[in-house]
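BUG-285 | component: ligand-complex export | severity: low

The export step for nicotinamide-adenine-dinucleotide jobs runs without errors, but we want the raw record kept on the ticket for reference. Input record follows.
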Amino acid sequence: MAHPALIAGRTAVITGGASGIGLATASRLAAAGMNVCVADRDGNALDTAARTLTTLSASGADAVLTIETDVSQLASVEALRDAALGRFGEVALLMNNAGTGGGGGPWENLDGWQRVLGVNLWGVIHGLQVFTQGMIEQGTPCAIINTGSKQGITNPPGDAAYNVSKAGIKSLTESLAHQLRGVEGCQVSAHLLVPGFTYTGMMKRFLKEKPAAAWLPEQVADHLLERLGCGDFYVLCPDNEVTADIDRRRIEWGTGDMTENRPALSRWHSDYEAAFEAFMAADRD
Ligand SMILES: NC(=O)c1ccc[n+]([C@@H]2O[C@H](COP(=O)([O-])OP(=O)(O)OC[C@H]3O[C@@H](n4cnc5c(N)ncnc54)[C@H](O)[C@@H]3O)[C@@H](O)[C@H]2O)c1
């Protein structure tokens, strides 16, 4: 069964929707008869996305709106909302999905930190500040999806700024779900999308060909729509290498750092290499 917000004739707003996971989701929804409002800061990619989505939609260009948007700027997200409501009159699905990487380590690259937190975390905060109240007041089934990352849960070394931004999205989306539950008559559900390794625009800059381990963005979109239909809050995606069981164990190990009083990020600490491997391999049945 599909999520009740995702029906033909209703409207989806997707940030970072001109590429990758956002575009794959917009494509599925356009093909299913929804209006799609795609926001991205890349104007050329938006033009290409508009042509793709128009072809997929039975209503053609009437059901497709693309808006050049910088989600790190509140005024730009307000303009997005005004354009979406002006054209379609309502918003059933908000997907705060725009994202970027290349932040930096804890005491490095201040510009990178500001850029990554500006897009990834402030972009989601802006989306919620601008759209949520109106979606509640519509009084119709609605959904808000924020795109997080496994890096915001297990915190692997490499790009602390990115991890912080995605950990912030997890925390924010959990708070959103809780607060929406407490609003009387509210029909808006919240969901945290956690993609696995996915071959998208972000990856294509570094990897010319899709690695065998990676999913395609269409697989993430299909998994997302299926799990939304089941009412899941955490939409954790596997990929061709990392199974749901591997994810579960990695998350449990990470949480165990605190509850077992191990050093931070012990998964990557040489003293804990053997213990982590044994934990991952242990027979649980
Ligand atoms: N690809 C993966 O393996 C993976 C894994 C986990 C999480 N994610 C997350 O998935 C989301 C989608 O990324 P993707 O992998 O599809 O990459 P992508 O690069 O294909 O798509 C991201 C889109 O966001 C847009 N964008 C960047 N900054 C923006 C801004 N300030 N305002 C508006 N749009 C902006 C880009 O132009 C791009 O079109 C991101 O939040 C990313 O962090 C991706």
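Assignee comment: Attached the raw record above. The domain at 11-241 is CATH 3.40.50.720 (Rossmann fold).
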